[in-house]
């Protein structure tokens, strides 16, 4: 029985070791680790393209097309957070009052004074004051009031050990470089031995 040779990533790299050169990767990501992870996971599968020129072109196109998605993935992969916090956020409140209050008041009054005079049983009016007061008050409140509150920590719904276990499982299951290699495998490899 005669076996037909297959073209793999490793075979193509032997013919042209530049097929992964200059592929666009997210800032901060290591292009060599991406390349080596792809070779590790996909190196023995038959490729969709048997020509090194075609494969190099399609790899460049594929990385360019997926760059934005890879940048988001890398940003999430490298985000700083505390695994023990199930609440970590900022609440920002902006209050912009534009209140104008006018208070107007008026009062009128008469004051009478009287007293009993000597040898008289009747009261005699001795003074009378009549007055009028006008008052006006204006109250204006404008401007911007900004309040920023950071809330963080474990709010008690989930045990700390559960949070740590979830974090560990997340890091063991999801790896930025492995995710790119799996996506590459689906795009370029015939996954049959």
Low-pLDDT parts are none
Q: What class would the helix/strand composition place it in? A: alpha+beta
Mean pLDDT: 80
Distance between the termini: 17 Å
Largest sheet: 2 strands, antiparallel
Question: What Rg do the Cα atoms give?
Answer: 41 Å
Instruction: Indicate the percent of residues in helices.
Output: 25-40%
- The side-by-side strand order for the widest beta sheet comes to 1-6
Total helical elements: 5
Which descriptor suits the 3D outline?
A: rod-shaped
Strand content: 25-35%
What's the count of strands?
6
Number of domains: 2
- Give me the strand/helix succession: HHEHEEEEHHE
Which helices and strands occur, and which strands form pairs?
Elements: H1 9-15, H2 31-42, E1 46-47, H3 52-77, E2 87-95, E3 99-116, E4 123-141, E5 145-153, H4 160-173, H5 176-188, E6 189-190
Antiparallel strand pairs: 1-6, 2-5, 3-4
Describe the structure.
The chain is α+β, with helices and mostly antiparallel strands. The protein folds into 2 domains: 9-86 and 158-190, no CATH class; 97-141, no CATH class. It is 37% helix and 31% strand.
């Amino acid at each position: 029985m005669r076996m037909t040779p297959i073209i793999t990533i490793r075979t193509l790299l032997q013919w042209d070791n530049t097929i992964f050169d200059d592929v666009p990767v997210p800032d901060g990501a290591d292009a060599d680790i991406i390349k080596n992870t792809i070779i590790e996971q996909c190196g023995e599968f038959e490729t969709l393209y048997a020509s090194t020129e075609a494969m190099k072109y399609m790899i460049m196109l594929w990385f360019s097309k997926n760059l934005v998605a890879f940048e988001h993935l890398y940003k999430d992969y490298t985000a700083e957070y505390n695994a023990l916090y199930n609440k970590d956020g900022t609440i920002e409140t902006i209050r912009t009052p534009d209140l104008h209050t006018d208070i107007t008041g008026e009062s009128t009054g008469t004051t009478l004074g009287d007293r009993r005079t000597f040898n008289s049983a009747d009261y005699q009016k001795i003074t009378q004051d009549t007055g009028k007061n006008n008052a006006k008050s204006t109250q204006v409140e404008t401007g911007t009031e900004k309040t920023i509150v950071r809330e963080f920590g474990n709010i008690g719904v989930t045990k700390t050990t559960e949070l740590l276990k979830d974090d560990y499982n997340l890091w063991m299951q999801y790896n930025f470089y492995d995710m790119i290699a799996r996506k590459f495998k689906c795009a370029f490899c015939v996954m049959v031995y």
